[in-house]
Specification:
mainly beta; 10 strands
Length: 107
């Protein structure tokens, strides 16, 4: 398991680099192929996705069990007008969404 924490003062480049520089968490790594088995992270600073489309708020949480499960609890603002609280769990079987996945959005 690796603990991932953004370095203070680091200026990321690219859209994904900027997003990940505002998330901290843990990575579980397979000892044989070094692939990620699980990712569990929390947003430490709010960030935007797209140009003024959505803003992911501090405290949002994501957990991914590769390739079995994706779990996300997030708060976001859409176009600075609508607030959303998202709770979503997706499970996969043979790399396809299983039929028992749950989803809820409130806003």
């Amino acid at each position: 398991m690796l603990q991932a924490t953004p370095h203070a003062g680091y200026h990321a480049h690219g859209k994904f680099g900027k997003m990940f520089s505002k998330v901290e968490g843990k990575l579980w790594v397979d000892k044989q192929d070094f692939g990620w088995i699980k990712v569990d992270g929390e947003v430490t600073q709010s960030f935007s996705m797209g140009i003024f489309v959505a803003r992911v708020l501090r405290g949002s949480h994501i957990a991914v069990w590769v390739p079995k499960r994706l779990e996300m609890r997030a708060s976001a603002k859409i176009l600075f007008l609508k607030s959303l609280d998202i709770a979503r769990i997706l499970t996969y079987s043979d790399y396809r969404p299983a039929t028992d996945g749950s989803y809820s959005v409130s806003g």
